Automatic annotation (TrEMBL):
Species assigned in the record: Nonomuraea roseola
UniProt name for this protein: Secreted protein
Renumbered residue ranges of the record's region Disordered: 179-209
Compositionally biased tracts (Basic and acidic residues): 184-209
Ranges annotated as spanning the membrane: 6-27
Taxonomic placement: Bacteria, Bacillati, Actinomycetota, Actinomycetes, Streptosporangiales
Keywords: Membrane, Transmembrane, Transmembrane helix
Amino acid sequence: MTTETLIWVAVVVVVVVALAAVAFLVLRHQRRGRLRERFGPEYDRTLAEQEDRGAGEQELLAREERVAELDIRPLDPERRRTYAVRWTEVQERFVNAPGFAVTEADQLVTEVMAERGYPIEDFDQRVSDLSVGHGAALDHYRQAHEISGREAAKRASTEELRQAMVHYRFLFQELLGESPSDGRASRRDPAANRDDHDEGTSRRDSGGW
């Protein structure tokens, strides 16, 4: 093999390696953007809890894989209406029994999660599973859960209990207003599969919280 041929071989190898490196960087950038979009605030939170960015993103990818194996399904319109009415009743009970209402709100949110197909046995696992399609709601859920825990020890003020209701409502409304996306995770779908009457009922049932 001549010197000129060796030089051309070396050039080709360098070009191939460079193209592979560029392709890797592009794919990683695209994956990062997709994860940021899908997980929202949970993306930064998860990365902060891990040793490095790579470990954090692998954790999020693992969550996607787990949720892909779950049978996450939408509520039918009748069940949405039923749950909306039940939420209004819980809000009305807050006036006279705020602590009891917060406990009911927690149970109602958990019930909706279970009916949609989310495992509910462990709180941390619930948060992990919800993060795939409900990243924006997780801080609300965590705060509501923390206040609910303090209420169990009778250490939560009425204002804190009111805030817990607001936080629970955020996730509750998302769970009622979403439908599965390509069978793997849930994405917001506030208008599809609902007529104008259903949307009006949902707005009235929110009770202004």
